[in-house]
Design brief:
Blueprint: H1 16-32, H2 35-43, E1 48-53, E2 68-74, H3 78-90, E3 95-98, E4 112-118, H4 127-137, E5 138-149, H5 155-165, H6 169-172, H7 182-188, E6 192-200, E7 212-219
Parallel strand pairs: 1-2, 1-4, 2-3, 4-5
Antiparallel strand pairs: 5-7, 6-7
């Protein structure tokens, strides 16, 4: 399997405390809160070359189907990237873990059949630019699979989310914002929304500002047919 990791003293993202916490919490959420099943649903049916943005500690890798020929996994945070490299070794498909920022992907244009974002649009610095990069690297008609949390439908909770985003939440949770609207962002970046569904995650006893999620598929529009 092609596998490499690059050490870069000028990583685009550096959240070592959050990385340590996420490494401990995320496997528990997969096992007890149903996130593992959502990862399987997110990736089912993919094939060809896939780029995953914000791969974190690589929990998606085990769920890629055998029809995927290669995954290029971009992760900007150094500690999480090291964990992703370890997860890539155990994956059933070839996974290449590389550093990079979503706003400037270190790959060629129109090089991928599909792209994956999983709980990452909440924390990128520039959502529109990041989605523009995903459009660039996808082939015309290519799929973008997404599993993201965002703004709640109710006004009260949405106001709470916006207040948290202006104060402590991004500082405590690795740059995460709870009140972004992933569906609006995808449409605004020129993607065609396909099937999606809303869900509450994780299934915990205490309501979380990041519990409102959406899982689905969008597409880069195919090039217009010439006459």
């Amino acid at each position: 399997m092609p596998l490499r990791t690059i050490r870069n003293p000028h990583d685009a993202v550096h959240h070592p405390v959050f990385a340590q916490v996420w490494a401990k919490v995320s496997p528990v959420l997969d096992e007890r809160a149903g996130m593992g099943e959502h990862r399987k649903e997110l990736l089912a049916g993919l094939s060809g070359r896939v780029i995953e943005i914000g791969a974190g500690n690589g929990l998606n890798f085990a769920h890629y189907p055998g029809t995927v020929s290669e995954v290029v996994a971009i992760e900007p945070e150094r500690r999480l990237r090291r964990m992703a490299v370890e997860a890539a070794v155990r994956a059933g498909v070839p996974v290449d873990v590389v550093p990079g920022a979503a706003e400037a992907l270190p790959v060629k244009s129109e090089a991928f059949d599909a792209a994956v974002v999983s709980l990452v649009l909440c924390s990128v610095r520039d959502v529109r630019r990041s989605l523009g990069e995903l459009r660039r690297v996808l082939k015309p008609g290519g799929e973008l699979r997404f599993f993201e949390h965002g703004v709640a439908p109710g006004r009260v909770l949405a106001d709470v989310q916006r207040g948290l985003d202006r104060t402590v939440w991004p500082l405590l949770f690795g740059g995460c914002h709870t009140a972004r609207d992933p569906l609006a962002a995808l449409s605004g970046a020129g993607f065609e929304l396909g099937a999606y569904r809303r869900l509450l995650m994780p299934r915990t006893r205490v309501p979380m500002p990041s519990a409102t999620c959406v899982l689905g598929v969008a597409r880069r529009p195919a090039e217009p047919t010439g006459h």
